[in-house]
Structure to design on (160 residues):
């Protein structure tokens, strides 16, 4: 009798997926789900879903659109090392200098939040050479914050 019950349970486990409809998400639906999590500020779920999109996106169609939001989601949950890794990937996917500099400022911010002002300073030095005029104020703000975080109080004052 006991072996009959075990056999019946095994049979039900094998056959139950065949009797219940199985649903799968397309890559586009998964990306839209990640975007909705991101828009709602559910960064942990967004990060998981963006990771899934990147894993299954063999053609790379969603790569550029996913990387920066994935990094933002990791930054939103305080996982700054993962955010930095994905910001760096997003940086190389950016199509113009304005996008690259905006991502670079996010990299600097992540270094500062990760309590690594030395790395933030290095990023600022690299950015200074190609700085767009529209980013001058943002650059000066981060330069002041970085100098303050490095206890260089004289350089932390932004010139008037």
């Amino acid at each position: 009798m006991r072996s009959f019950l075990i056999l019946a349970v095994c049979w039900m486990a094998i056959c139950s997926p065949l009797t219940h409809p199985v649903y799968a998400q397309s890559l586009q639906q998964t990306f839209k789900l990640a975007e909705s999590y991101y828009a709602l500020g559910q960064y942990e779920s967004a990060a998981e879903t963006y990771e899934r999109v990147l894993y299954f996106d063999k053609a790379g169609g969603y790569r550029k659109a996913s990387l920066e939001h994935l990094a933002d989601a990791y930054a939103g949950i305080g996982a700054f090392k993962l955010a930095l890794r994905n910001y760096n990937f997003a940086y190389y996917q950016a199509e113009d200098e304005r996008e690259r500099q905006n991502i670079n400022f996010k990299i600097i911010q992540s270094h500062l939040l990760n309590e690594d002002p030395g790395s933030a300073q290095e990023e600022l030095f690299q950015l200074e050479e190609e700085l767009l005029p529209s980013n001058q104020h943002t650059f000066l703000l981060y330069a002041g914050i970085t100098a303050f975080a490095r206890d260089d109080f004289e350089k932390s004052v932004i010139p008037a």
Observations:
- The mean pLDDT is 87.
- The chain is about 70% helix and 0% strand.
